[in-house]
Amino acid sequence: MKNCIILIYLILSCGCKDNQSNINYNPSVLQEHDILVPNSKISVGLNLTVPKSSLEKMQDSLLALPINSFSYLQISHLLTFIKEKDQELRGKHDQILQKHDWVEANRQVDFGVNDTLCRNVFDKIVEVVGFPDNKRFGFIADTTVFLLLAHAPTVYRIKYINEWEVAVKANSSNAGFFADIKDRTLIATKSWQLYATQYSQKDSLLLPIKDLQNLNNRRASMGLPPMDIKKIKQTNF
To answer: What's the whole-model pTM score?
Structure first.
């Protein structure tokens, strides 16, 4: 009963009154066409707004739910929640930067609580359905994964980077987003980047690139445009 109440509340919080939303996730019966809930006008990936603080108050109960307590639609709502929660304070941070410097903006805005909550919910999603891809959940999966990992510690990126690469190779996740985060992860670990997406903040030069002669082949595999290798200027770490 407790689980049902929480799940119903999640759906109502997202503004969804679809009576099909209580379909349990069962990997043995759900097929690719189940991306859309039967007879529903709401498609997975729809940008729905979750009221502030609705999940913070239920985090412990949410994360304790068994994996068969979620439907595809509910997971899509959770992905939307993560995306919106990730951006919530960053919008405020950007506003402060218009009048103050980074030190003052960082003093006024602490991303820690929001980001930790988002990562905890994402971990639960992966436990339920594996790494979320756009074939099942639409573009919201691509956007959420990118924002979450872009703002996560390097150790958290490393946790999921291989699973994400598998999804990219299966053409079920945004390759350009992956290339950016892969390069960020490599640079953060003092390794040479693969796709030439990361620049030095000091001099705006590209950070070290591995095997420059084959750069454009790798970029093409990620759907990125070619670069003029002869004009590339690199800097050190």
So the answer is: 0.72
